[in-house]
Amino acid sequence: MKMLKMRHICMVPIILASLILSACGASTDNENYGGQTLSEVRRGAAAWVEFDITSEDNPAIAVYKYAVADEQEIIATLTVPGDKDYDLYLYNTDGARVAKVETSGNGVDESLEFTIDNFTTLYVVIYDGIGNSDTTNTGGNYGLILSLKAEEETPDLEVPDVEIVLTETPETAGDNESAANAQEITTNTVVTGSLAYGTDYDDFYILDVVAGDTLTISLIGDNPSPTVNFNLQLFTVDSSFIQQSENSTSTEQTVYTIPEGMDQLVVLVVAYNGAGTYELTVKSSLPAGDSCGDGVLTPITETTDAHASWETAQVVSLNSVTCANLSVSLNEVSGIGYFHESEKDIYIFDVTEGDNISVSLTGLDVNYLQYHIFNGDDGSHISNDYEGADLDGSIAYTVAPGVSKILVQVIYTKRLDAEVAPEVTTMPYKLTITTSAE
């Protein structure tokens, strides 16, 4: 890091010697240092300094100036020696104070962040406001450094494909600025809208949701300017905050699993700075084109409780469709190789002797989903559909005498020759169970 050592040399006309203190010495004038304004004389005497250069000295009063540009974010840091209690003040081109930090106590460092607002010269005043007697070059040196805050990179998001495209229509644009007037959308939708800080802050959207569904909600703004900042927030229908994605750009993404009892979700796109258009994408984890039920079969949501064993199996029913997810990971099996493996999901339902039941499974990668049915009374294996070939669509079984319950086990497995990251980390699927009596 460059170091700038301020030498203790004052060059001022004799006639002004009793009135002027440059950035390098003590003062006998009556200027109110740290006050609302910084005098033109004081600004003219200040030393120019570049960013990321440390200025070191130890007078009771010092003034520095920096060339700045509109909307630059400045970080000012002052290290304070143990025998001093320095404060830090910022002034604009015209000498008006724009920021200050005055932490009490000898040896206490000072720092602040400030955004330049339409001026080109920033003045920094260091002042020993409590009047320590060592107002010359005695005692320890302070260290002042100003830096520009690094711009936050726009996240590189993977936005899922969706089936439905909507637009925030002009009549909607004026109406969806509160939760009560939220625009209705659906999952698997991308909607185009616009915001402008100061005139159109908020766009609210509301959608029907299914418990257990995991939504990926993405926001992509079209304006790459670092001054444009849109955020993404989620709320319940009674305006309770759930979660948000916020950075200093207009690109955001958040993932949320719908809890039991929730049937609607409110999505808010909010402008914190700047203006532009955006695309809001809401992607469901449920199998494409399915809302977990067709209006005929009973929709069932996978429980959040563990159901990976006979004893903890989730209870479902005949003539139902269950929407669920498997968590997929990479595991090494000794002597065999690597497998993409998942948790097991086990379900149980009541049957009657003679019922012709059909159990089918659909999902993102049917070649590696497998499922089995077992006698729920004694655990004996009945039938299965395995990995490695296209699933035939269903397992058919006529309930034998003495069988009163059926267990269904769902698992995802894919063998690999070498360690490879899973193609997916969550495998959504739909389990459909139907019956017809003889």
Average predicted confidence as pLDDT: 76
What is the name of the CATH class of the largest domain?
Answer: Mainly Beta
Judging from the principal axes of the Cα atoms, what is the shape? elongated
Largest sheet: 11 strands, mixed
Number of extended strands: 31
Low-pLDDT regions: 1-29, 131-137, 169-173
Our count of helices gives: 2
How large a portion of the residues is in β-strands, by DSSP E? over 45%
Q: Quickly give the structural class.
A: mainly beta
Radius of gyration: 34 Å
Count up the domains: 3
CATH architecture of the largest domain: Sandwich
Q: How widely separated are the two ends?
A: 86 Å
Q: Helix coverage percent of residues?
A: under 10%
CATH topology of the largest domain: Jelly Rolls
What do you see in this structure?
The chain is mainly beta and 438 residues long. It has 3 domains: 146 residues, Jelly Rolls; 120 residues, Jelly Rolls (Sandwich); 140 residues, Jelly Rolls. The chain is 2% helix and 47% strand. The chain is built from 2 helices and 31 strands. Strands 21, 22, 23, 24, 25, 26, 27, 28, 29, 30 and 31 form an 11-stranded mixed β-sheet that branches. The N terminus is likely disordered.
Keywords:
Jelly Rolls; mainly beta; 2 helices; five-stranded mixed sheet; eleven-stranded mixed sheet; elongated; disordered N terminus; 3 domains; single chain; 438 residues
Secondary structure layout plus pairing:
Layout: E1 3-5, H1 40-45, E2 47-48, E3 54-57, E4 61-67, E5 73-79, E6 86-91, E7 97-101, E8 110-115, E9 121-128, E10 142-148, E11 164-167, H2 170-173, E12 183-185, E13 189-196, E14 202-208, E15 214-221, E16 229-235, E17 241-245, E18 251-257, E19 264-273, E20 275-283, E21 298-301, E22 314-315, E23 320-333, E24 337-342, E25 345-350, E26 355-363, E27 369-375, E28 381-385, E29 395-398, E30 405-416, E31 426-437
